[in-house]
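re: ur question from earlier - yeah i can do the single chain one, its not a big deal. heres the input i used so u can compare w yours
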Amino acid sequence: MAGARKAKRKAKRATSKRKMRAIARRGLMLVLSSPSGAGKTTLSRMLLKADSSVKLSVSVTTRPRRAGEKHGSDYLFIQKPQFDRMVEKGELLEWAEVFGNFYGTPRAPVETALAAGRDVLFDIDWQGTQQLREKVEADVATIFVLPPSSADLEKRLRTRAQDSDEVIASRMAKAADEMTHFAEYDYVIINKDIDQAYAEVRAILAAERLKRQRQTGLHDFVSDLRDKL
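and the output i got, formated as tokens:
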């Protein structure tokens, strides 16, 4: 008899856990920004590899495709007239001109993902982040990644062994400007250790997912819970 009651309680707890997991949730836009070399790209790759509920936002661009790049995964490569039409029709959440080429985030795939409870990761700068906030602030959580020191940032840039001294100096100057916008972000992570920084990104994402306004199925769950008390 005692064994039957124990099994019944166990089954009830399992049912309760399934219901908890089934609570509908609206996805969020997670923005990672940082100066070049601060670790943003590495953190993005780690998150995408570990969490299947996160997808990377794929931007449209008018610049030519580089060797090894794939249409649809790296970028959506389009012509300038098509880009202009997307801007005119409000089909881009954010867009910018960079060195004569245009980049933007298509609205439709992001909204589809959010409605399905998936999170969308953005690798954009502070200007793009501002545009997102102006249009869809309730869906956005922003993180700015800082290097632990200027010496460390320069070391990381030189370790890449891809850029000349002139280019590195230019990137350092740009980084100094970008860092002035840290106060515009919800969270700031100092990337002293990549594993610790990644753990902090995961903690932020977990907290943002639990925000009451994002748990769209919470009202029905609580109503059902109260009915059974």
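The longest strand covers residues 92-98. not sure if urs matches, ping me
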